[in-house]
Each structure stands twice: as structure tokens, then as C-alpha cells.
Design a protein that fits this description.
Strand content: under 5%
Strand order of the largest sheet: 1-2
Number of helices: 32
Structural class: mainly alpha
Helix content: over 70%
Distance between the termini: 125 Å
Number of strands: 2
Largest sheet: 2 strands, antiparallel
């Protein structure tokens, strides 16, 4: 009887088994719905960035003025540092954007945002697997990664594609490593190594990946042994290679500065560590640039010293308090490992800290905070107070993050809004902000007087910035204040003799003054410094036309067109080639060049009538009077002066 009842009981237990399966399905659906909600909220809060424009802060170096993006080659992508950094995968992704949409910024912003949404999902999966399914820990960490305003810079800034791209492969690599730790399948370790290599190719910050893996080993209680180290050897090899390439690129690009003492740099690093934590919970007064103290001013501002003292007190204190709470130690370690290389111990760039540097490191801090939301009360000291307080903090931070992120996306609308915001936060303190806003006034808004005023402010802050003198010279040239403009170019060259743009632009001023020999010398020097300087080739070609050196003029103008085939001003060089060929009596070739110049010349351009007239001359020289007459009539219709005698010669009525 007992056995029969047991069998019946076993049969009768099929329904509960179905309920257990149904419960598991509901649990999976719940996870997916929360993930979908987090991704949707992140997408909605970032909507304002999708209609943003390019800025003049590195977007020109990375995209709008980068021949490597417009005309990529595998060799160029793999061997060319950009803006003092080596990140071939990032450049390849930008080249793909250019191939798809040219210089339409919407495409670039969409891809940045899609990568950020993917990263938010990867954070969700990483934390879920790392913590073995702690629900609120996973949800809160992923949600704040997605919506935190400190991450806007990484997403809304096109030139910062490297951040969202490296993080994508970095997180994928961490997930693959966890799969390896859980199952010991070497294929997952190989996948983690491949993902790390791609991450390092997108941004050098990924080099700390192997140390992060050691932190995961600590969190997962893997016994430390030589095997653990040998397991990481290929990762450290990739990190070493990428580090060497990066240091070489940064030194070649002049990105590393040595103007601060070691003690000052330690203070700056301490300030960064502390302020990134502060900005996590108080994300206010955000800025594109957080300036260093003025050179020659107070050597050590009190806030830097206070940060240093706070750090040397708090780190040991946190270790002592949480030494048995593995997740807190892991979270702090993850944060410090991933922020260490950007703490300005070796000062790179012109800012003491930057919001983009928190993109991956914040995962550790968020994890350490969110962990307590799932911790049973009986396991927590002061649990009745800590968990509700933490929940209130995160609930308060959520709307603040949503609002601040929405607003910061609009700050990145264009160069003017970006630098207006920065200057409002730090008036009279950041030379680069005035230089960049001045460039926007000069290049985009055509507000030349305003541009000169901003460059003057920048030079008052630091008179030794060659770029400021160069841009001021450009604005003064646009105002036709040629003598003042030349003084600025002279100063830029004195400060930075290898600045090709300054030589080229000074040559332009000399050309205006009809100093053809001086202009030719400056254009030649610009080309020596930068053989791929399109404008210098075009300008020297013009001087060669004016001095009747037609063969070198043809070579320079052709080179200018080759360097940037999509440049809308190429019709000028093509027309010059046609004129030079005409003077050399190579009329058939000249006609072909004039055909192209006429085809590409913008409507209403005064030179269009000249191209028709010159083509008429070449056709007449070849005996094609009918075609020459048609061209002469078109030239006359467009405003060119055509003599009655010439028309009569072609058989037309005067």
C-alpha cells in the first residue's frame, strides 16, 4: 500500500513539476522585462543627442577632417595614430560610419547610442552571472550604468566612440571569462582573450583587463596559484603590446605633459579618485573640462590636498570595515583598477579629471552599493537602517540621473552649446574652452569679431598656445586685417615650428600682399612638414600658375585633388589644371579638365563663366568652331566679357 501510494504520489506530483517549470519561465520573463525596461529608459533619456551636430573638440581630427576615415586602407587603419592615440578598431568603425552616411552626424550618434544600449545589456548579463542571479543588484547596477549623467560624454561625443566600443568588447570578454570560470572550457577563455584584444584595439584603457580578471578570481574565491598567473599570461602579453603602441603614439602626439611635479600629480590623482565617487551620488556641475590650477598660480590648491588626505584615511578604513565583505572589496578594486590609468599620475591632456573616465569604472562602485539591496536583513549589521537608506538614496538618484542626462545630451548639441556651458561653469579659467568656442565662431558661425575676442581671452590665460595664435590669425585674415594676421602666424610658428597650418596660412597672407616668392616658400615648408596637406598643395599650385611654372602647378593641383577627392572646392584645382594645360598648348587635355570643372562648379560661382570661355579657346585652337561658339555664348550668358571680334571669328554674330 505504501509503495502504491508513493507511486500515485509520484504521478500526482507531475502538476507541481509543471508549476515549477512555469515559475522558472515567469522568472526568466521577469528578468527580460526588467532588462527591456532598463534599455528602453536609457534610449528615451538619450533621445536628445540623436540630432546633435559634430563639435570642434576632436571630432575634426577623428572624422570631419580625417582622410583616414574618408579614404581608409587596412595599412593606414593599422599603422596611423590619431590625436595622440592608437585605436585602429575605433577608426575602422568611424570609417564604416563615413561609408554609410558621409558627414551626416546622425549616423554616428545612432551607432554610439546603440553601443551604449548594448553595453547596458552586457552590464546586466555580467552582474547577473557574477553574482549568480542577485536580482536587485543586477537591475540597479545596469540601470544606473545606462542612465547616469557622468556617462553622457562617452555617448554624446562622436570622438569618444572609443569609449562605448572598447567597453562593448571589454564587457563581452568579462562575461566570456565568467563562463570559463564556471565551466572550465578553454573555448570561453579564448573568447575572452579575443574580446580583450578587440577592446584594446578600440581604446588603450582596456590594458587593465587581465588585472580585472584577477579581481574576479578573488570575488569567485578561486585559489591563487601559479596556474592562475599562467592562465593570464596571454592577456598580459596583449596588454604589454598595446601599452607600448599607446605610449609611442602619445609621445609622438605631444599628449604627455611634464609641467607638474610628482607630488602635484599624486594630489591630482587623489582628487580624481574622490571626485568621481562624489559625482556618482551628486552628479551636478558637470563639465566637458575640469581645469588644472593655473600654471604659475597656487601650486597646490587646498581641495587637492584634502582629497589626498581623505584618500589615505578612507581606503584603509574601508578595507578594515569591509575586509570580510568580499563584494565591497571587489567593487572598490574594480573601480580603482579601471580608473588607475586615467588619474593623471602621468598628465595626459589638459584636464584634471574627465567624465568619460568613469564609463567602465562605475560598474564596480554601483555593484558594491546595489549588492545590499538583495542582502538578507539578518546578515547585515545595522540592516534595518542601511538597506532602507540605500534604497532611498538610489530612488532619489534615479530621477536626478534621468533629468541630468537629458539636459547633458542637449549641452552636446553643438560646439557653441558645449563651450558656453563649460565657460559658464569655469569662467576665465580654461584656455581650450575659449579656443574651441572661438573656432566655432570663426569656422561655423562666421562671427569673426567674437572669435577674436575668445582667442584673446585664451591667450590671456596662456600666451604659449600655438593653436590659439593660429586661429586668431585665421579670424583676423577673414576680417582682412592682414598685417595683424601675419603677426599671429609668425607667433604660432615661433612657438611650434612644425605647425604646417601656420606656414600654409602665413603663405596665404603673403600671397595677398603679392609676395609670390615668400608665399611659395611658406607653402613649400608646409608641404615638407605635412606631405598630405591638401590646401598647401592647392595654394602652391596657384602661385606656380601665377609665376608661369605650369608643369609643377599641374602636379600640385592634381595632388590636392588626390588627397581629398570629395572636397567640394576641387573644381578650383581642376580648373587650374585646365588653364595650365592650355598654356602648354595641350588643348585636348585642357578640354577634359574644363569639362570636369564645369560639371562640379557650384551654380552661381563666377568662375563658371571663365571655364566656359577657356574651354571655348581650346576648342577654337583645335578647329572646332561650332563647339567653341556654343561655349563662348554660354560664357557670355553667365557674365563673362566676350569680345565681338572673337565671336565673329567663330562665325557668330557679334
Amino acid at each position: 500500500m505504501t509503495r502504491k501510494r508513493e507511486k500515485r504520489g509520484a504521478k500526482g506530483e507531475r502538476r507541481p513539476v509543471k508549476r515549477e517549470g512555469s515559475d522558472a519561465a515567469r522568472a526568466r520573463l521577469s528578468w527580460l522585462l526588467w532588462l527591456a525596461g532598463i534599455v528602453a529608459a536609457t534610449f528615451l533619456v538619450y533621445l536628445p543627442c540623436l540630432d546633435n551636430k559634430f563639435t570642434d573638440w576632436d571630432d575634426n581630427f577623428y572624422v570631419t577632417e580625417n582622410a583616414l576615415v574618408a579614404h581608409p586602407s587596412l595599412h593606414g587603419i593599422l599603422t596611423t595614430p590619431v590625436a595622440g592615440n592608437y585605436h585602429p578598431l575605433t577608426m575602422a568603425s568611424l570609417a564604416l560610419n563615413y561609408r554609410l552616411s558621409g558627414l551626416d552626424p546622425a549616423s554616428y550618434h545612432w551607432l554610439n547610442l546603440l553601443l551604449h544600449l548594448a553595453n547596458t545589456a552586457l552590464v546586466f548579463f555580467f552582474v547577473r552571472r557574477l553574482t549568480k542571479g542577485r536580482f536587485w543588484t543586477t537591475v540597479a547596477t545596469a540601470a544606473f550604468f545606462g542612465i547616469h549623467p557622468m556617462h553622457v560624454e562617452s555617448v554624446a561625443w562622436i570622438a569618444e566612440r572609443k569609449d562605448v566600443l572598447y567597453a562593448f568588447f571589454y564587457l563581452a570578454g568579462l562575461i566570456a571569462y565568467l563562463r570559463y570560470v564556471d565551466g572550465r572550457k578553454l573555448a570561453w577563455l579564448g573568447g575572452a582573450l579575443a574580446a580583450f584584444a578587440l577592446s584594446a584595439a578600440a581604446k588603450p584603457a582596456a590594458v587593465v583587463f587581465p588585472i580585472t580578471l584577477l579581481a574576479i578570481d578573488y570575488f569567485r574565491r578561486r585559489p591563487f596559484s601559479p596556474a592562475i598567473i599562467w592562465e593570464k599570461a596571454p592577456f598580459f602579453l596583449v596588454a604589454l603590446l598595446d601599452g607600448i603602441l599607446t605610449l609611442s603614439a602619445q609621445r609622438a602626439g605631444g599628449a604627455i605633459s611634464d609641467q607638474w611635479s610628482l607630488l602635484q600629480r599624486i594630489f591630482f590623482a587623489s582628487y580624481g579618485v574622490v571626485m568621481y565617487v562624489v559625482k556618482l551620488v551628486l552628479p551636478f556641475r558637470l563639465s566637458a573640462i575640469y581645469p588644472y590650477p593655473h600654471v604659475g598660480g597656487v601650486p597646490i590648491d587646498p581641495k587637492y590636498a584634502v582629497s589626498f588626505v581623505a584618500l589615505i584615511v578612507l581606503v584603509p578604513l574601508l578595507w578594515f570595515v569591509f575586509r570580510r565583505v568580499r563584494v565591497v572589496i571587489f567593487g572598490l578594486a574594480f573601480y580603482l583598477i579601471n580608473v588607475a590609468l586615467v588619474l593623471q599620475l602621468s598628465t595626459v591632456g589638459g584636464a584634471v579629471m574627465a567624465e568619460r573616465y568613469t564609463y567602465v569604472p562605475y560598474i564596480g562602485l554601483l555593484l558594491a552599493l546595489a549588492w545590499w539591496l538583495d542582502e538578507p536583513m539578518e546578515k547585515m549589521r545595522f540592516g534595518a537602517v542601511v538597506r532602507p537608506a540605500l534604497a532611498v538614496l538610489l530612488l532619489a538618484l534615479a530621477p536626478v540621473s534621468l533629468l541630468q542626462t537629458w539636459k547633458r545630451c542637449d549641452v552636446w548639441q553643438n560646439a557653441e552649446t558645449l563651450w558656453d556651458d563649460t565657460i559658464r561653469k569655469y569662467p576665465g579659467q580654461i584656455a581650450d574652452a575659449y579656443i574651441n568656442r572661438g573656432f566655432y565662431y570663426y569656422h561655423d558661425a562666421k562671427r569673426y569679431e567674437a572669435a577674436v575676442a575668445d582667442f584673446d581671452q585664451a591667450l590671456a590665460l596662456n600666451p604659449n598656445v600655438a593653436k590659439a595664435w593660429l586661429n586668431k590669425g585665421n579670424a583676423l585674415a577673414a576680417l582682412e586685417r592682414n598685417d595683424s594676421s601675419r603677426v599671429c602666424f609668425d607667433r604660432a610658428i615661433a612657438l611650434q615650428p612644425n605647425l604646417a597650418d601656420a606656414w600654409n596660412n602665413r603663405g596665404g597672407i603673403k600671397l595677398r600682399a603679392n609676395d609670390l616668392a615668400g608665399a611659395d616658400s611658406d607653402f613649400t615648408r608646409a608641404i615638407e612638414l605635412d606631405p598630405n596637406h591638401r590646401d598647401a598643395h592647392a595654394n602652391r599650385g596657384l602661385v606656380e600658375i601665377m609665376t608661369r611654372r605650369y608643369e609643377p602647378a599641374i602636379a600640385d593641383c592634381r595632388r590636392a585633388v588626390e588627397l581629398d577627392p570629395a572636397n567640394p572646392a576641387n573644381y578650383l584645382q581642376v580648373g587650374s589644371i585646365g588653364f595650365a594645360l592650355q598654356q602648354l598648348k595641350r588643348h585636348q587635355e585642357a578640354i577634359g579638365e574644363y569639362d570636369e570643372a564645369i560639371r562640379t562648379c557650384p551654380p552661381g560661382e563666377p568662375r563658371l563663366s571663365a571655364y566656359y570661355l577657356y574651354r571655348s579657346f581650346s576648342r577654337a585652337a583645335l578647329g572646332d568652331s561650332a563647339a567653341a561658339l556654343r561655349d563662348a555664348r554660354d560664357a557670355q550668358r553667365l557674365g563673362a566679357t566676350v569680345t565681338p571680334a572673337y565671336l565673329k571669328k567663330l562665325g557668330g554674330a557679334p
